[in-house]
Design brief:
Elements lengths: L1 H22 L4 H8 L3 H11 L26 H16 L3 E3 L5 E3 L5 H18 L7 H14 L2 E5 L6 E5 L9 H13 L2
Antiparallel strand pairs: 1-2, 3-4
Helix pairs in contact: 1-2, 1-5, 4-5, 4-6, 4-7
This protein binds zinc ion.
The site of zinc ion has 8 residues, from helix 7.
Amino acid sequence: MRFTDDRYAGERQQFDLAIRLISHEARTHIICALTGFSQDRIRKLYTTYFRGPDGKTIRRQRGKSPANVAFFVRNASVQAEASTLVYLFGLFGLLKITDRLDPLPRGDCSDIVFGESLCRAYETYTSLYPRTAISFERSWNLYRAVALRKDAVLADCLRCGNIYVQDALALDRAECPPCRLNRTRGTTTLP
Ligand SMILES: [Zn+2]
């Protein structure tokens, strides 16, 4: 009985996470990796739970996830949102940020717990901004960029000391998004 209960609870957790990821328009390969469900099972979830009365399903992302770090620093506003997301990854236990500002992945949790924490971090981010520039897919890419690939880094602003996200290959002006915004505004308003 106990085995059955545990198995049911485990499947329920997988199912709930899959539904949550689908609602965030995560790509199928991410949902498979985090829930352990097969592609076929996920396809069935789409058609069973996300088909509207007009027969249309929620937008299903296909192909490879976006992996362009330049997107996160394209302007001060997106860069501020990306920096917020990385703070949230730390707050929800997905990263451990060292004293040297090196974000290390937390490898001590299951894929399901990781997926739930990623959803919580992303949902908190979307609750903080009225309109968000970073999709769930891109937030997954941002996590991988800072924690695994290291092609995005955390830097501290030379002007004010804020910690922010920067492209590892950028010619860094060493200024955080608010200082970047102030400088941009200053140059546009001055003759
Ligand atoms: Zn600054």
